[in-house]
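Holliday junction branch migration complex subunit RuvA: structure, please.
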Amino acid sequence: MIGKIAGRIDYRAEDHVLIDVRGVGYLVYCSDRTLAALPPAGEAVALYTDLLVREDLLQLFGFPTLVEKEWHRLLMSVQGVGAKASLAILGTLGPEGVSRAIALGDWNAVKAAKGIGPKTAQRVVNELKDKAPGIMALGGTMGAAIGDDAADVIEDAPTATAKPRPAPMPRGNAAAQSEALSALANLGYAPGEAAGAVAQAADDAPDADTATLIRAALKLLAPKG
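Here you go.
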């Protein structure tokens, strides 16, 4: 299994890049969002990868963070969602947006992805809602793929002059959301309702710290009336 690739972009296409890793080229398919964030040809890059194996096909899919890779794997577990549909959802919403949409039961946000109909969007939300808290919690602990591995590629290639670009940080404070989820779980709230409340609180205040998110989520979870 190929889980991560660090090398230099040889060329970019509409839906994939060719990454040269010490003379071996790997074709890696990515979402529109990921492709837009990648550096130009000739520069160093590192991506987490997921290998799709079929009887007549081997395809690598690349992701800047492990959180996005995990969402890709979960999305593909839903009936009717293949690799192309998963990348469309991630390209439209990003991993943080997918987390919020599923935690809040917002299937209309999922439906905004190209090629995703209402039935598929509802199925995604219904089947993955209980899994959203775990992925949201990972957001505070899993970093970007770019790092020492890409730097090593440059050091091993004396003629190269490009420097690696750091991968874009996810929107919002992922670490604070993770800690808020953990705190609500310790208070006895069910994972699904805790994730929904934290997602709503983070939407209202994207830069809020842990304590602020917890207070806001508790207000949302408080009995009405």
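Notes: The chain has three domains: 4-64+145-155, 66-137, 171-220.
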